[in-house]
Amino acid sequence: MRTDPDSLAGRTALVTGVSRRRGIGYAVARELGRRGASVTIHHFGPHDADQPWGADDLAAVEAGVREALTPGTGFASIEADLREPGLVDSVFDEAAALTGCLDILVCNHAKSGGDGSILDVTADSLDAFWETDTRSTLLLTRRFAKQFATAAARTRDPGERLTPAAATDPASAPKVIWMTSGQQNGPMPGEVAYAASKAALAGVTPTVASELGALGIILNTINPGPVNTGYLDADSTDRDLGDPTRTLARTPFGRWGSPEDVARLVGWLVSPAGSWVVGQVLTSDGGFSLA
Asked: Per-residue confidence of the chain (291 residues) as pLDDT tens digits?
């Protein structure tokens, strides 16, 4: 019987940063559930409560993800501040306990607000973005990878190159998705700390992808472009939007991206159909960077 190349049946995913129905994480969790995966969502409501767009009703978020799940699959929901290194393992362990193994990790969480220009940044503001966006993503990925490391890999000397594992079918490989931003395509004025934290993920993608590849794990990083999750609405933005009508008029499709645009790409990348894409930083912005 031929396997459906788009199906995630039998897979278990952890999607971080799923706290708002307008968010990318919510759309990704629903897409993976629709494709047949069991899904654990992570969220940290206090972060959103401090933003112009505000916190969402978590019960409604959870209900929306459950609604999209394929019958017979599992669901779990975890609240945690991933800036606390000690919580990374507990979040991972709880997500893995849903079915006994975690084979898809989507690191969607990110810090918003409290940024500034190069004249405004402080050690504390740089640390806050690093801890949230970069450090926790790397630590979650490390914990994910340890599931699939051989005894030899776990006991090697620090920095020693990993010995490639026996070849596996790419279609069944565990998958990791990171999120970056558009800092490689042009300036992001007023977002120095955020751009730096995301640039670190984009920059280290080939290195980590190579090491994960030796364990049979596939990593890709996505720049989703300008996706309107509320921050591009005049009544809930956290920045000067200028004249959005003129901005959108220069783009091929004349609109901001939607969370579903990103979710479809993530769903494809972590499915068997997307397994030949490895170690890439993919810009998916509807041509925005060309305008």
From this structure: 347 899 999 999 999 999 999 999 999 999 999 999 999 999 999 998 888 888 899 999 999 999 999 999 999 999 999 999 999 999 999 999 999 999 999 999 999 888 999 999 999 999 999 999 999 999 999 999 999 987 656 667 777 777 676 667 878 899 999 999 988 888 888 999 999 999 999 999 999 999 999 999 999 999 998 888 776 665 656 666 667 778 788 888 888 889 999 999 999 999 999 999 999 999 999 988 887
Beta-carbon contacts of 291 under 8 Å, excluding residues fewer than 6 positions away, are 247, 250, 251, 252
Q: What is residue 267's three-state secondary structure? A: helix
Q: If one looks up domain 12-151+164-189+200-290 in CATH, what number appears?
A: 3.40.50.720
Which residues belong to the active site? 194
Degrees, nearest 5: CA angle 158-161-164: 135
List the chain domain ranges. Answer: 12-151+164-189+200-290
Which of 126, 110, 107, 109 minimizes the C-alpha distance to 118?
A: 126
Instruction: Report yes or no on whether pTM surpasses 0.85.
Output: yes
